[in-house]
Amino acid sequence: MAEIHWKDVKKILVVRLRSIGDTVLTTPSLIALRRFLPDAQIDVLLEDWVAPILDGFDDVDNVLKVSKDTKSRLSIARQIRKEKYDVAFNLHGGTTATFFVRATGAKHRVGYKYFQYSFLYNHRLDSPESFWKSEYAHSAEQQLGLLGFVGVPVEDRPKSKLSVTKTATKSLDEKLKNSKPVENNASIALLHPVAAFETKQWATEKFARVAEFLGEKGFQTVAVATKTEREILSKLSTLSNVPIVTFYDLSLPEITALASRAELFVGNDSGIAHIASAVNTPSVVIFGSSNRNHWRPWTESPHEIVFEEMPCQPCTGYSCEEFDAPKCILTIKSKSVMKAISKLV
Fold first, then answer.
1. Mean pLDDT of all residues belonging to the chain
2. pLDDT for 231-244, tens place per residue?
3. Is the N end or the C end of the chain the one with fewer CB atoms within 10 Å?
4. What does the pLDDT average to over 104-119?
5. Which DSSP string corresponds to 242-289?
6. Cis before residue 314, ω within 30 degrees of 0?
7. CB-CB contact of 45 with 277 (8 Å)
8. Which residue from 9, 29, 26 is spatially nearest to 154, judged by alpha carbons?
């Protein structure tokens, strides 16, 4: 393994494909790289749909985007090859990410030994646990470990961070202004009542009870989801005895601005929860099947996690293989979430 002479490094590519939460939890690594190499070109390759989440993030020079179609992948492969990166990190581990790292032709290619086709890397770390000398590692630590392995200072474990752009703030303010009953000075609680899998999605009627509880505490609840999830927002509004402002069409930068504006976040373990943490909003995150040690909020802001201990946790979460329904998330009581909220507000 050739040693990396960092004083000679001019260009770095970080590859991190996949979801919102994955992208947010890459920001600690980008922060660590920037402070270590303030004058280097640091680029990050993301999937196109999630790339806007790094709008305004000033610790990278270029956010490169790729879609899932073959034409886009070949085009970006040619582009990153021309850049002549000195170092390329794979913070994801998937086959596609490995392809991109190899396509750079970088002299130094960094990944884990357990990655598929690990022979394509010439700097390979056993595991994040071995680097941190711990029983488990958070997702952010998993990524930071690769940097630390090759000499980037990461011992302080930087926290996740996102920027709030003026453009997103302006467009969000317009949407809030047109969505009664949100007032300019209202204390907003941001609710995210959906999740990728049913094993991570708390019952909508329980979120309705939480909205009522937040109303008693003087909060205006604003709930967000995507267009395909808008029926859940409609159900939430119907079940709640207090008005809830709902949005299913906010962009990722607008959601970031909303999370920053909110005084509290309450929701399932999801990418939106990580956005809230990255703008230092106090948060209550409800966990079902997920690995809490790996996915808990990575922030210094106040937060609580709510869960019911189950012998089958954690699991992949695609479906519940132990019970007829995912008890890990369904048995969590509204009172447990309300108790967590009361600790923060």
1. 95
2. 999 999 999 999 99
3. N
4. 95
5. S-EEEES---HHHHHHHHHH-SEEEEESSHHHHHHHHTT--EEEE-SS
6. yes
7. no
8. 29
The pTM assigned to this predicted structure is 0.95
Degrees (nearest 5) of the Cα angle 176, 182, 188? 95
**What pLDDT does 179 receive?**
78
- Domain positions in the chain are 6-149, 167-344
Please identify, in words, the CATH class of the domain defined by 167-344.
alpha beta
* Cα–Cα nearest to 107, from 220, 8, 25, 216: 8
Domains 6-149 and 167-344 share a fold: yes
CA gap 73, 79 in Å, rounded: 10
What is the separation of C-alpha 173 from the centre of its chain, rounded to a whole number of angstroms? 24
Count of Cβ atoms closer than 10 Å to residue 302 Cβ = 15
pLDDT over 80 at 180, yes or no: no
Give me the CATH code for the 6-149 domain, please: 3.40.50.2000
Other C-beta atoms lying within 10 Å of the C-beta of residue 74 = 12
Task: Count the Cβ atoms, other than its own, within 10 Å of residue 306.
Answer: 18
Contact 191, 211 (CB under 8 A): yes
Place of tokens 């004083």: 7
Residue matched to tokens 């930068």: 253
What pLDDT is attached to residue 1? 63
Which two structure tokens, joined as six digits, stand for 342? 């009361």
Exposed, middle or buried by CB within 10 Å (0-12, 13-18, 19+), for 303? buried
Q: Which of 256, 284, 231, 24 is nearest to 163 (CA)?
A: 256
* Residue pLDDT, tens place only, 249-298: 999 999 999 999 999 999 999 999 999 999 999 999 999 999 999 999 99
